[in-house]
Every structure is written in C-alpha cells, then in structure tokens.
Write a structure and sequence with these properties.
The complex is a heterodimer of chains A (603) and B (246).
Chain A (H helix, E strand, L loop, with lengths): L6 H11 L16 H19 L3 H6 L3 E3 L2 E3 L3 H12 L17 H14 L4 H17 L2 H12 L3 E6 L15 E4 L5 E11 L8 E10 L10 E6 L1 E3 L5 E3 L2 E6 L10 E6 L6 E5 L5 H37 L25 H33 L5 H33 L11 H8 L9 H12 L6 H17 L6 H26 L3 H6 L1 H30 L6 H17 L3 H10 L16
Parallel strand pairs in A: 3-6, 4-6
Antiparallel strand pairs in A: 1-2, 4-5, 5-11, 5-12, 6-7, 7-12, 8-9, 10-11
Helix pairs in contact in A: 1-9, 2-5, 5-8, 5-9, 6-7, 6-8, 8-9, 8-10, 8-11, 9-10, 9-16, 9-17, 10-11, 10-12, 10-13, 10-16, 12-16, 13-14, 13-16, 14-16, 14-18, 16-17, 16-18
Chain B lengths: L1 E5 L2 E3 L7 E2 L4 E2 L6 E3 L1 H18 L2 E8 L4 H10 L3 E6 L5 H15 L3 E5 L10 H9 L3 E11 L2 E8 L2 E8 L2 E5 L11 H7 L4 E4 L30 H11 L4
Parallel strand pairs in B: 1-6, 1-8, 6-7, 7-13, 8-12, 9-12
Antiparallel strand pairs in B: 2-5, 3-4, 9-10, 10-11
Classes of the chains: A alpha+beta (603), B alpha/beta (246).
Chain lengths: 603, 246
C-alpha cells in the first residue's frame, strides 16, 4: 500500500515536541497514558489502511449525486458511520457523563490527521455529526440531549450545520430563514440552506440539522440570529419517526471532494417543519461559533492531511522515476550512465522539501493549537484564559495556512510528476482538486484574515499577541542554546520584531478611524503572520530534534532527527524570507484596493 | 473454556534492519515495534471468537521486558481478558517455549494459540515446542477451525490443497491467514485495556541449546537490466552466467 502520511513524524510531534503524556497528570485525562495514546494512533492507522484509503479514488470516480429526489453516496459512508459509532470515535472528546471518552483534543486531531490523509471525504460525515452533537450538549436542554445525542454518537443519526443561504454566505447577518413560535414551545422553521455538507443520504436513518434562523421580530444583523435543532424526521411519542418537512432539493456537483455530498435543503415548504431552540434566543451565532471554531481546526487538519498525502505520493514517484542525469562538476552529463531517479535533481528535491516543510510545519501548528484547547479546558485554572486566547489567535492561521499553502504544496507535488501529475492515473490531480475547497468553506481565507487582523490580533488590547510572542521567545531562547541553531533563532527573533512593527503600523489606521484601510490587506497580513508562525513551529521541532541527537535520547533513527533540522533550514532559507516582501506591501502607504473610485478602474 | 494466546513483539514492517556488535545483535536504534500480525490478526481473534461463542476467558502470554507492555496492552484492547508477561529476554525459541509451557501447565488451558511464525525470525518453532513440552497435540498452519464440544475440526493449508484434521482439547494450534479476520481495537477497548490485569511473572531457569553467532543482510538488489528483444543471445548469457538460473 502506498504511504499517505508519516506515523513517525506524528509520533515525534505528539510525544517529543508536545509531550502530550503530561496531559495525563490533569484530572480530566487521568485515565489515559502514553501506551493508550500509542495504541489509539496505531489502531487508527490500521483502520485507515483497511477502510478509508482503499476507497479514496473510488469515491472521486463515483461522486455523490442527486437522483430521483435522493442523494446517492458511496457505500463507505454507511460503513464509516457504523464503524465510528462502534469505535467510540464520534464525540470521543466529550465528557464521560454524556457517553464520551474525554479524549484530549490533541489526540483527536492526531487521529483526524491519520484518517483525513487516507481519505479527505469520508471523515467529514462523522466529524460534523460529533460537532453537531457537541452543540446540543453545550447549549441544548436536557430533553434535546436525550432525544438526539445518543443516536448521533452511535453513528445511527447524522448531524449537520446549516448556516449558508442562497443570498447569505460570508455575510450571515443577512440570513432570512424564519422561526415562528408554536404553542408547545417549538418553532415553525421556513427557509432554504445551501452548501450543507453531509446533509442527506441513504445511510443515516435521520439527520439532525443545526439551523441558524431568525425568530419573528428579532433584531436585524447577527444579533437577531438564533440556533435550532431541526431533524429531518420528528420523533413521535412512540419513538417512531415521521417526516419533518425537510426536503432535499439537490446535491451540488463540485470540482473536488466529490465523495462528500453537499446538499441544498428546503425547510418548511409545506409549513410543517418543527425546530427546537438551542441555547438562548438571538445568541445563535455565538453558540454556532463554538462549533465553527472546532470546524475550522478540522478544515485545517483536512487541508494539511490532503497535502501530506500528496507529498508522500510525489515522494514515492520521485524515488522511482528515472529521468535524466546529474550534472557533473564540469557542467556536462554522461549520456552513457543510467538515468538517475528524479529525486536526485536539485529542483525536484527543492519541490519535495517545500512540500515537507509546509505540511509538517502545518500539522505541528494544528496539534499545538489543539493542545492549547486541552489546556484551556482542563489545564490549571489560572492558565486557562491564556491558553484560550492563544487558541483564539491561532485558529484562523491554523485553518488558513494549510488551506492556502497546502494548495501550493500539492501544486509542487503535481509538478514533480510532470505530465503524469495532470493525469488521472496518479492521485496528485485529485488532491489538487480536493484541497481547493478548504480555503472556501468554514469561512473563506478573506473572512479568516479579517478575523485574524480585525479581531484576534487586537483582542483584549493585544493580550493574545503578547502570549504568542512569549511562546515564540521561549522557543528562540531554547534554540539559542545550540550554536548551529543560533542563526535561525536570530532570524525568528527578527521576524517576530517585524511582526510587531507591521501590527503597530496597521493598528494606527484603526486608531485614526480608517477601519476599512486597517483591514484592506488582511489577507496579505495573514500570509505574513502565518509564515512567521510556521517558522516558529519549525524552530521548535528542530530544537527538540537537536536535543534528542545530543542527549542520545532518541526514539527514531538518527537520520530522522537530522532530517527535521534540515527541513527547518530549508523553511528558513526558502519560505521565511518572503515576509520581507510582504512587509514592504503592508507598510506601503498607497491605498489601491479601497473603493475610492468607481469600478471602472478594473475595466 | 480457558484459552491462552502467545504473542510476541516484532519490528514494524517498514523498519530498517541493521545489526550491531559485529553482526551478532539486532540494532534496535530507531525501530518501532508491533504485535506479530499472525498472533494478533488470527490467533488472538479466533480465540476471542471462541470465547464469545462458548464463554470462558482469553489470556495473553508474552516473554519479554517491560517495553513489551504496549504490545500486550494492544491485545487487551482488542478483547483479551488478562495478560501475563514472563519478565525475561526471549533468548531463543526453546527458552521462550519452556517459559510459556511452564506457565500453561500450571494453569491448565484448553487451547494454546500462537501465530504460525513471527515475521522477524520466521522460526515457526515456539508453538511446536510448547506442545511437545506440554505433551499435547500440535496443529500447525491452521486456516480454519471449528469447535464442537471438546473436539476441533481444523483445516491446514498444505502443498497443493487442504488437510482437515480432528483433535480433542487440550492442544496447541498455530494460526495462519484465514483463521480469523483482523480486529482493530476501538476506543473504549483501549481505555478498558488499562484496567485489565497484566501479571508479571519471573522466569524459570531454562537452558538454551542454540546460540546466534551472527546475522547478515541479504545482498542488495541489483538494478533491472533491459535487454534488446532482438538480442536473445545476450539474454541467455545473462540468465546463465549472472543469474545462474539456466
């Protein structure tokens, strides 16, 4: 079987870099130990090898589709729902009291990485179900929890999140789906939702939709949005199901992730669709954002996993494909020599190292963010706010960097294969199509960038940024203990200083009331800050690797640790210097994108 | 029904194999370990199926150091009820067999399961030795097994076909592909494994009859040679002089 991810790299980040077994000292995670984490990782890999990877291509070739009023998906969807329920994988991070296993988020993310690398379409079905169940548990009344959550956790019922409407995508303040109160405390729901992932298929007996809607008379904008649970089938008193006037109008045909159905749902066309309020009226968007934040981390994981699988596919090809000969010292090639595998050509090696540095840097960041989530929920009381702020700050980066740079990474993977990369005989073209959605759903790159610069960087008067800077300085200090890492520590120190300068420069616009100007180049800022963030993760990995080599306290082969240091050096040579150009753009006073003239400037 | 399953630890299938100490010892540097697949996928799972159908208990046994506990825990996570680790380096097949046979004799198991071989040394020796030491029948390379009362009907893959044998308990059986289907531990099983008993037993004195004096790797694979289809003489020469197959 082809390799699609590196278990050793995952183990290295989990155990040696993040030292997650320290979590087991916290009361919430005391039932776990390193052994159980290892067995979980290995078991997930075995499951992914057996059930997920073998159908990856097939699901692309047999896409989800809408036929005769039904959504047809690959039979593996039914299998993964059943298996995940039995394996305890849905809601594994939940409390014991509601049937969860109190698995640390960082382990959940590691497990997700394995599964998504094997098949980036299938795990979404169960991930969304777990996310929807979590929302009901967090904000719903006990009766709703008892009615819906157990069957969702068993994989018998699926869950979805319904935000987008035909006229309201990124701007959720403009949604129009209506909720009118009934006498029994429920609501009549009426409206349309589009782009609903996993919204309908034959392998779940019910679908539990978490729907954003406006209660009659609610204030305009986001402050008038409420959250409802709206099942496809209502549960009657005798526990049997009856239709709830939720109609599937179609399934969107997409360029990638074709195995993951994306439905158009119509609620209450016959005025017979019942929903139940979850949480507080008019606080629905705030509640939903709990799920959205988790979903954004999950999208980042899907993106990095897709790019990771593409990297391993291109690496394998580069090892096996003989083409051309190496240039000898005199600048000539010996035509009588056998052709060399293309991995030996510097430009191919550059493309492979670029992929390795992007994907491993990104998975390190995602796992780091997940560890912050664990610490924010279960760590020492006095540290929780700090970890929560770090998670909040890093979430838009953890979603966006893998989505954007993962695409660049896969593009380089396609390039390694040459013309074959463009052909369906190899998986690279599928990975390239699949990853494109990641920069779009769960908040586009533009939305994430606005969130980062316009909200997170300045939240609590820059408190979260101070925490991050402290973390970066700690990494720099540790790296500087080793002479050969000192130059890189200096570079990151310099980059961190430039980050502060750019933020100070941009914040001035906000202070002057020029808010549109403040956020106009938010996406450029995202590129700038995320590159520095990944450099931080690489220096951290390299320092851990260096320590292992020097102390001899190694789990893997010596070359494994040397490779990590080499890849850090690559990132610092080829990627980190890009921040200088981005800084020039961000600091330049010209304003060229704000609408000061009419649209004719684009003519 | 009391069932004992012998499990051993082997290097991961992708591990790079190297030797140290002048070729007399396996280089464990950087090697990740797994449970021997024949033990895990077939021997253990068939034992669990029998327990589920007929009641009883499944006990794992391993000879090795505390570092083997992760592999043993995995077996508990898959469904075994308890485990025993004989706290000794597994010096040779006979040494391991003596340790296991000694424990099995004291506990009185109905069936002792093992994989048909470990995927590192490929000896296929331990299970046969255990049977001999216990003085019970031994069925090797079992690919199918049904139990009726205390009589098992076992299919064995043999050259060109299948041999079907009957055997009454107690006996030792070595499991081949087909005896069962791999089970992957679920998360609840993994958590429960931590609470299941893993007993550590000190070894008995036992002599070795053999000593490994050296290991060597097979020669590296040479590159593929492409022969012009018109040049059959060259093909014949290479097959005769280099490959030495004709």
């Amino acid at each position: 079987m082809a390799e699609y991810m590196s278990m050793n790299t995952l183990r290295f980040i989990i155990h040696e870099m993040l030292q997650v077994e320290k979590l087991c000292a916290l009361p919430r995670y005391q039932d776990y130990d390193k052994e159980s984490f290892d067995i979980l990782l290995d078991s997930t890999k075995a499951y992914a090898d057996k059930a997920l990877f073998p159908v990856f291509k097939e699901m692309d070739e047999q896409p989800a589709r809408f036929e005769n009023g039904k959504v047809i998906v690959h039979p593996s969807v039914g299998q993964i729902m059943k298996d995940s329920g039995e394996r305890g994988a849905i809601g594994s991070t939940f409390d014991y009291e509601v049937g969860g296993l109190q698995l640390p988020h960082v382990l959940h993310s590691a497990v997700t990485h394995i599964a998504q690398s094997a098949n980036n379409s299938l795990p979404g079905y169960t991930g969304l179900t777990g996310g929807a169940a979590n929302l009901i548990i967090s904000f719903g009344e006990q009766s709703l929890i008892e009615k819906f959550v157990p069957k969702m956790m068993k994989g018998e019922w699926a869950g979805t999140m319904c935000l987008t409407e035909p006229q309201a995508g990124s701007s959720l303040s403009d949604i129009t789906t209506a909720a009118s109160p009934n006498d029994d405390g429920s609501y009549q729901i009426k409206g349309q939702k589009i782009f609903i992932s996993g919204g309908d298929h034959e392998y779940s007996e019910n679908f539990v939709h978490l729907v954003l809607a406006r209660v009659d008379g609610a204030p305009l904008g986001t402050k008038g949005i409420s959250l409802f649970v709206v099942p496809k089938f209502r549960i009657k008193e005798d526990e049997t199901l009856e239709p709830n006037d939720v109609i599937t109008a179609g399934d969107f045909q997409k360029m990638g992730q074709k195995g993951y159905c994306t439905t158009h749902l119509v609620f209450g066309e016959n005025d017979n669709c019942q929903g139940w309020l979850v949480g507080t009226k008019n606080k629905g968007l705030k509640h939903m954002f709990q799920m959205m934040n988790g979903a954004r981390i999950d999208v980042g994981l899907t993106a990095v996993s897709t790019a990771t699988a593409a990297y391993h596919a291109s690496l394998q090809y580069a090892k096996e494909r003989p083409q051309g000969r190496r240039v000898e010292s005199g600048g000539v090639k010996n035509a009588s020599e056998e052709q060399t595998p293309i991995i030996n050509h510097p430009d191919v090696r550059r493309m492979l190292l670029l992929q390795k540095s992007i994907t491993e840097g990104a998975i390190a960041l995602l796992l780091q963010a997940s560890l912050y989530q664990d610490m924010s929920e279960a760590g020492p009381e006095e540290d929780r706010v700090r970890y929560h702020d770090l998670l909040e700050l890093l979430t838009p980066i953890a979603k966006t960097y893998p989505s954007e740079m993962g695409r660049v990474s896969i593009s380089n993977g396609v390039q390694v294969l040459g013309g074959y990369g463009f052909c369906t005989d190899f998986p690279l073209e599928q990975y390239y199509r699949d990853i494109r959605i990641m920069a779009l759903y769960e908040g586009t790159t533009g939305i994430q960038s606005l969130d980062l610069l316009g909200r997170k960087v300045i939240m609590k008067n820059g408190e979260a940024m101070k925490h991050l800077t402290k973390e970066i300085i700690e990494t720099i200090t540790n790296a500087a203990n080793y002479d050969d890492l000192k130059p890189y520590a200096e570079e990151l120190k310099n980059a961190s200083k430039q980050l502060q300068e750019v933020i100070m420069h941009l914040v001035q616009y906000a202070m002057k009331g020029e808010h549109e100007r403040f956020i106009a180049d938010a996406t450029v800022f995202m590129d700038f800050m995320s590159t520095i963030t990944i450099a931080w993760q690489w220096l951290k990995m390299a320092t851990v690797a260096k320590t292992a080599l020097i102390t001899g306290n190694t789990t893997f082969e010596t070359s494994f640790y040397e490779n990590k240091i080499h890849t850090m050096r690559f990132f610092f040579k080829y990627e980190l210097p890009k921040i200088h150009g981005l800084k020039v753009t961000l600091m330049r006073p010209e304003s060229l994108t704000i609408l000061e003239q009419d649209q004719s400037i684009l003519a | 029904m009391k069932l004992l399953v012998c499990v051993t630890k082997t290097p991961e299938t992708t591990a790079k194999i190297a030797f140290t100490a002048n070729g007399t010892a396996f280089d464990t540097n950087g090697v990740q370990y797994i449970m021997n697949p024949y033990d895990e996928w077939y021997a253990l799972v068939r034992a669990l199926e029998l327990k589920e159908a007929q009641g009883g208990s499944v006990c794992l046994i391993n000879v090795g150091s505390p570092s083997n506990d992760t592999v043993i825990r995995k077996g508990l996570a898959i469904g075994a009820d308890e485990a025993v680790r004989i706290n000794a380096e597994p010096k040779s097949s006979l040494y391991v067999a003596k340790q296991i046979a000694n424990y099995a004799k004291s506990e009185g198991f109905d069936i002792v399961f093992a994989g048909k071989e470990s995927i590192d040394y490929n000896g296929s020796e331990v299970s046969a030795m255990i049977a001999e030491l216990l003085d019970v029948p031994f069925i090797s390379y079992a690919s199918h097994m049904e139990l009726e009362g205390n009589v098992a009907t076992v299919s064995r893959d043999i050259e060109g076909g299948t041999e079907v044998v009957e055997v009454a308990t107690p006996f030792v059986i070595s499991a081949a592909k087909g005896l069962a289907e791999q089970r992957i531990p679920n998360m609840r099983g993994i958590m429960m494994a931590k609470r299941k008993p893993l007993k550590v037993v000190e070894p008995i004195a036992a002599d070795d009859l053999t000593e490994a004096v050296g290991y060597e790797l097979p020669p590296a694979k040479s590159a593929v040679k492409l022969i012009d289809p018109e040049n059959m003489d060259e093909l014949v020469r290479l097959l005769s002089e280099e490959a030495k197959v004709i």
